[in-house]
Amino acid sequence: RAFCQNVCLLSKLFLEHKFLKYDVEPFMFYVMTEWDSFGHHFLGYFSKEKESPDQYNVACILTLPPYQKRGIGRLLTEFSYELSKKEDKLGSPEKPLSDLGARSYHSYWTDTLL
Predict the structure, then answer these.
(1) Which residue of 29, 33, 36, 93 is 20 to 30 Å from 62, comparing CA positions?
(2) Number of helices and strands (H, E) in the chain?
(3) pTM for the complete prediction?
(4) Phi and psi dihedrals of 25, rounded to 5?
(5) Phi, psi torsion values for 100, nearest 5 degrees
(6) Distances (CA, A) of 89 to 52, 84, 104
(7) Which residue in 86, 43, 94, 46 sits closest to 68, CA to CA?
(8) pLDDT digits (tens, 9 = 90+) for 74-114
(9) What is the torsional sign of CA 52, 34, 72, 18?
(10) Where in the sequence numbering do the catalytic residues fall?
(11) Is the separation of the CB atoms in 75 and 83 below 8 Å?
(12) What is the C-alpha to C-alpha distance for residues 64 and 14, in angstroms, rounded to an integer?
C-alpha cells in the first residue's frame, strides 16, 4: 500500500493533470522495472481501477524521464489493452491525457491501425 502511494506521489512530480489519491485500494498497479547488477530500477507503471464503470483500462501511466523514448510507454499501453481483452472489456484511458500521454496514445493507435 505504501509503495503504491509513493508511486502516486512520484507521478505528481511529472504529470501536471495527476489527481493525487491516497486511497490506492481501488486500483491495480502494474510496474515495469529493469534489472542489472545493482538490482531492480523503476522505469514506469500504469494503474487502473479494479472496477471501472466507464471501462477505463488506464487511470495513470508514467515512464520516468530517463527511460522515455525507449518504447516503455508503448509496452505499458499494449499491456493495458491486452489486459482489457483478457477481461473482455473495451477499455480506454481516463481523461484528460497529458500532452505526452496524448502523443503516446496517438502514436500507439496510428501504428496499431495502420
Answers:
(1) 36
(2) 3, 5
(3) 0.87
(4) -60, -35
(5) -65, -40
(6) 10, 5, 21
(7) 43
(8) 999 999 999 999 999 888 888 877 787 888 888 888 888 87
(9) positive
(10) 94
(11) no
(12) 8
